[in-house]
Amino acid sequence: MINKLQIHQLRNLSQAVLDLAECNLLIGENGSGKTSLLEAVFLLSRGRSFRHHESKRYISYHQSSCTIWATTSEQQQSASLAIQKKIDTAGKSDTLLRFNEQPVASQSVLSLHLPVLLIDPVGMNLLDEGSASRRQLLDWLAFHMKPEFYQHWLHYQRLLKQRNSLLKNPAINQNISQLAAWDKQLSIYAKTLHECREEVFYQWIECFDEMIARLLPAYHNKLYLQYLAGFDTEHNLLDILNKRIKQDIELGYTRIGAHRADVAVMLKIQHQNGQKIREQATHVLSRGEKKLLITALRLSQLQLICHAVAQGRVMLDNPPIVLIDDIDAELDAAAVSILLDTVLSLPCQVIISSLNNAIHDEILLKINQLNNTGDNNTNKQYNQSNGQNVSENQQKSYHMFHVKQGEFALMYAD
Ligand SMILES: Nc1ncnc2c1ncn2[C@@H]1O[C@H](COP(=O)(O)OP(=O)(O)O)[C@@H](O)[C@H]1O
Ligand SMILES: [Mg+2]
User: Fold this and answer.
1) Whole-angstrom distance, CA of residue 332 vs CA of residue 149
2) Is the pLDDT of residue 384 over 60?
3) Where does ATP bind (predicted)?
4) Distance of alpha carbon 152 from alpha carbon 188, whole angstroms
5) 67: Cβ contacts below 8 Å, ≥ 6 apart
6) Whether pLDDT at 329 is above 70
7) CATH, domain 1-115+316-414, list 3.40.50.300, 3.40.50.720, 3.60.15.10, 3.40.50.2300
8) Residue 385 has pLDDT above 70, yes or no
9) Which of 1, 58, 251, 272 could covalently link to 349 via disulfide, CB atoms 3.0 to 4.6 Å apart?
10) Which ligand has the minimum distance to the alpha carbon of residue 122?
């Protein structure tokens, strides 16, 4: 977990220093800086913001850089992480990363040490957007659970970029043979990406079913996930690319491949006449139900990763830090309660933001229940499967901060 977090010149946080607990609540008015703090933690882990891809948007006005530092501790081991985003006068951006005071070249060092999972209001549109955000959801799992995934993914992206620029080249028809070399490699990486994704997908759907039973019981055994590889995996991608080379040249990009993978959320509907049909969930569910469904997608990923970390099945050092922005803005009270029960019962650090003071009492109550009785249902289920004993769990520490114009005041510590 992060013990100490320092943020310099990110949006309205000119200089923030916070001592964090395992569970943290940020309360403040609109525009006070709550989302900016979550953005800072996300940026440190992923190297990009969830709000804007250009660093000039989140570096404080009239400044040329922003920096985030964190010290973490896990089983008496401590580490330090830092990221700095800079823009020069020409608008060119640069990133500097450090781990334990040493410069590092790859963001993956920080991502693996400090994985984060974000639940925020914008993410609630996941079902209605294009496939990219759902693919990222699956790839986040694959990245953390399959050590080989990331390198293969990088190779695939590089090859795809080269292939696409060749396709756009006006002289492509004279250079078709050049494509063959890229395509062979591309199809090899497409296969391994598909295998990694498929493997984590099958683990994920079990946890997803459990979460649907809790968050949307009326849809249990009716909602299900479907993994789409982006190409017909019965065939070698090389053959598929060969067959449709003319279409790809016309389009100027590669239409089919592992970069088009998706996760569809499907719903089984039984009509009165007994006929069963399958529909995309997004066409049927209400807006409120979709939010619960998306919460179930995220929480089931969290549960899966936590199980895997506890069993030593992943190369992750630590379970993810959970960032929940505007917790009660989108979800009803019952869903907030299940969300809190789930994240508090898992061995994750959590940072929650809310406009509303009321959530403080609810969190306190839940933490006390968990700490005192240790027989929360979620805890039992979780610990049965990872073999740990609830009563051996440490007490969860809790801090509540008031945020005002980019300043954080600790109001409660337990
Ligand atoms: N690049 C920037 N530099 C300085 N302030 C910014 C920048 N971008 C946004 N802001 C301001 O930061 C404030 C905090 O925003 P935010 O963290 O989203 O607030 P909250 O989540 O508490 O509602 C807003 O008032 C916004 O106007
Ligand atoms: Mg906000």
Assistant:
1) 37
2) no
3) 28-35
4) 9
5) 6, 7, 8, 9, 82, 83, 84, 85
6) yes
7) 3.40.50.300
8) no
9) 1
10) 2
Q: What is the mean pLDDT of the chain?
A: 91
Q: Which residues contact 262 (CB under 8 A, 6 or more apart)?
A: 131, 134, 135, 227, 228, 230
Please tell me the predicted confidence (pLDDT) of residue 394: 61
Residue keyed to tokens 């830092």:
82
Higher pLDDT, 274 or 53: 53
274 marked as binding residue: no
Cβ(325)–Cβ(118) under 8 Å?
A: yes
Find where tokens 């505007």 sit.
326
* Ligand 1, atom 7: closest residue by C-alpha: 11
Q: Tens digit of pLDDT for each residue in 50-94?
A: 999 999 999 999 999 999 999 998 877 899 999 999 999 888 999
Q: Are 111 and 315 in contact (CB under 8 A)?
A: no
Ion ligand 2 residue ranges (Cβ < 5 Å): 34-35
Q: Quick one: 128-298 is in which CATH superfamily?
A: RecF/RecN/SMC, N-terminal domain (1.20.1050.90)
Encoding tokens for residue 335?
């869903």
